[in-house]
Specification:
Membrane topology: Single-pass type II membrane protein
Strand content: 5-15%
Helix content: 25-40%
GO molecular function, one term: glycosyltransferase activity
Main location: membrane
Structural class: alpha/beta
Number of domains: 1
CATH class: Alpha Beta
CATH architecture: Alpha-Beta Complex
Distance between the termini: 92 Å
GO cellular component, one term: membrane
CATH topology: Spore Coat Polysaccharide Biosynthesis Protein SpsA, Chain A
Number of strands: 9
Pfam family, one: Branch
Number of helices: 13
Shape: globular
């Protein structure tokens, strides 16, 4: 007959498979800085298999290209009333845009109502600043917008702290009708994909190598050699072809989702998109973002936060101007209490072209 110690050991050994089987239900789940790719891969495969725009245009009545506005947020959309005015700032504009919102599911973000109706909210996952979760969230938004409407030709990523600094009519005409854009007629097979992407791509940042080696000195090799590494703004306006490149990518994503060993220079959301598109099609990108950010007096990686005393018609005019051929169409970062003074000048300044 087995002794008591041996019996206890045997019982524990035989019960181990049951413990492993039921542990996900009885143990507190381990939190990872970014979630499994399994669900996203299914979504991305659907997105890259989405109908071609030309097929849709050939059967549509008076088709027009659209802008997909992608809101990445971990709180309520404080500036929703201002965006509501933006989306209503041109007559018969409801066929010119779509809206998609990735809201952190742990933040209980409420639907703002109006044009931000509930169908705009996509299935989301928790996000963390300076982590691959922000890349994954942006890719998720891009994928849903690709699937949802073949007429989405530009994909503008903005945050809850972003505001428009021009009317929708101006933004739309600038993207699709300005002389810098070569766009053929939107009619059947004559559609031309030659739209530039507006994304900041920098190769001369002072701490470029520290950012590159944040995951380890050789962690990015061989897929991303240092000379190919780029940085840029987290927010961008991509054309459909480049959006498909981002959603289809697996090769660079497996590197940029690696955890950092040094946290301070690790901002993967500012590295992944400019590096990928620079490597894939640098000539198709302007290298310039359309979102104005003030880095004067920045701290802890945060840009200047505008407050109500700073809001004025002159500020809006300054925010539009750049030292490039391209004006700024959006701006950040604004404190929530800026909403009231911004609404006061919305009709007479912000949305008056």
């Amino acid at each position: 007959m087995l002794s008591s110690p041996m019996l206890v050991s045997l019982t524990l050994f035989l019960s181990l498979p049951l413990v492993l089987f039921f542990s996900p239900q009885i143990l507190t789940p381990t939190y990872f800085r970014f979630s499994s790719d399994a669900e996203d891969l299914t979504l991305f495969r659907r997105a890259t298999a989405a109908p071609h725009t030309t097929t849709h245009l050939a059967t549509a009545t008076n088709p027009k290209p659209k802008i997909a506005f992608l809101f990445l947020t971990n709180s309520n959309l404080t500036f929703a009333p201002l965006w509501e005015k933006f989306f209503s700032s041109a007559d018969s504009n409801h066929n010119l845009f779509n809206i998609y919102i990735h809201a952190d599911p742990t933040a209980a973000v409420a639907s703002p109502g109006g044009v931000f109706h509930r169908r705009c909210f996509i299935p989301s996952k928790k996000t963390h600043r300076a982590s691959p979760t922000l890349i994954a969230a942006a890719r998720r938004l891009l994928a849903y917008a690709l699937i949802d409407d073949p007429l989405n030709q530009y994909f503008a990523l903005v945050s809850q702290h972003c505001i428009p600094v021009s009317s929708l009519r101006f933004v739309y005409n600038y993207l699709f009708k300005n002389p810098l854009v070569s766009l053929a007629s939107f009619a059947g097979s004559n559609y031309n994909y030659n739209l530039p992407s507006f994304i900041e791509i920098l190769s001369d940042e002072p701490n470029l190598y520290e950012r590159y080696s944040a995951r380890g000195e050789k962690a990015m090799l061989p897929e991303v050699p240092f000379e190919a590494f780029r940085v840029g703004s987290q927010f961008f306006v991509l054309n459909r072809r480049h959006t498909e490149v981002v959603v289809r990518d697996r090769r660079l994503w497996k590197k940029f989702k690696l955890p950092c060993v040094t946290e301070e220079p690790c901002y993967p959301e500012e590295h992944y998109f400019p590096t990928l598109l620079s490597m894939e099609d640098s000539n198709g990108c302007t290298g310039f973002t359309l979102t104005r950010v003030n880095w004067t007096g920045c701290w802890d990686g945060h840009p200047h936060l505008y407050t109500p005393p700073e809001i004025s018609p002159e500020l809006i005019r300054r925010l539009r101007v750049s030292n490039s051929s391209y004006p700024y169409l959006f701006a950040r970062k604004f404190s929530p209490d800026c909403l009231a003074p911004l609404m006061d000048i919305a009709d007479d300044v912000i949305f008056r072209d």
